[in-house]
Amino acid sequence: MLRSRQNRKSTKKRRSQGKFSRWIIVLAVPVFFWLGYKQVRGLEQPQAVLVLGGSSVDLERERFAAKLALEHHNLPIWVSSGSTNKNYVTRVFTNAGINPSRLYLDFQAVDTVTNFTTLVDDFQARGITKVYLVTSQEHMRRAQIVGEIVFGSRGIDFEPVIVPSKRSPEPLRKALRDGARALLWVVTGHTGSTFAKDKK
Questions:
Q1: Between 42 and 26, the higher pLDDT residue
Q2: Residue 34's Cα: distance from chain center in Å?
Q3: What is the C-alpha separation between 47 and 123, in angstroms, rounded?
Q4: Are 109 and 101 in contact (CB under 8 A)?
Q5: CA angle 59, 64, 68 (to 5 degrees)
Q6: Residue 166 has pLDDT above 50, yes or no
Q7: Tens digit of pLDDT for each residue in 94-133?
Q8: What percent of the chain stands above pLDDT 90?
Q9: Distance CA 31, CA 66 (A)
Q10: From its phi and psi, is residue 172 left (phi > 0), alpha (psi between -120 and 50) or beta?
Q11: Which has the closest alpha carbon to 65: 55, 84, 78, 46?
Q12: Strands across the sheet with 103-106, in order?
């Protein structure tokens, strides 16, 4: 009697361990596929430079991108900003020796989420599947989270290019908030910009 109870317990334990192992495998397989996919995408060369523009009085991201553009002289340069003066931006690149025909200036964005949502369709239509993503060090975490969601939803990858900065890192809550807004855009097409009290 005692042995049969022990056998039943042992059998139940083996079954539950087996179920747990199967669930681990079921969950692990997509993760391994995703990691492999990211590794392969990492080998691709970017086809454009995307600069998330700063303020109209601070053009360090654009200046940094101009240097990058000189190293990659065949790539188009996209500047996404809501506040930067168009003439200032153009001057930064032309003074660096960049042909204005390589510049695509987009001033529809009002914040980090719309930096991506206003351009993702243009990139997809042009067959751009990977870009250099240029932004400040303190802003990169938020930009990467949003970019992974918005660009990732259309099969577009990016390689981060950090502009050195002495500013303090942004609070994690801003990255999480904008990540949630990016998910909202993927599902509904709305960016939830009214929820973002702290712009950029």
A1: 26
A2: 16
A3: 10
A4: no
A5: 145
A6: yes
A7: 999 999 999 999 999 999 999 999 999 999 999 999 999 9
A8: 62
A9: 37
A10: alpha
A11: 78
A12: 103-106, 77-80, 48-52, 130-136, 157-163
- Smallest CA-to-CA distance from 89 within 73, 106, 109 is with 106
Please name the amino acid found at residue 173: R
Task: Give the three-class secondary structure for 130.
Answer: strand
Retrieve residue 38's tokens: 């990211």
Question: Two tokens at 94?
Answer: 């032309």
Of the pLDDT bands very low, low, confident and very high (cuts 50, 70, 90), residue 200 is: very low
| Contact (CB, 8 A) for 200 and 136 | no
Residues 6 or more apart in contact with residue 47 via CB below 8 angstroms:
75, 127, 128, 129, 130, 131
3-state helix, strand, coil in the chain (%, to 5): 60, 15, 30
Helix (H/G/I), strand (E/B), else coil: 76? coil
Q: What is the pLDDT of residue 59?
A: 86
At which residue do the structure tokens 């709305």 appear? Answer: 190
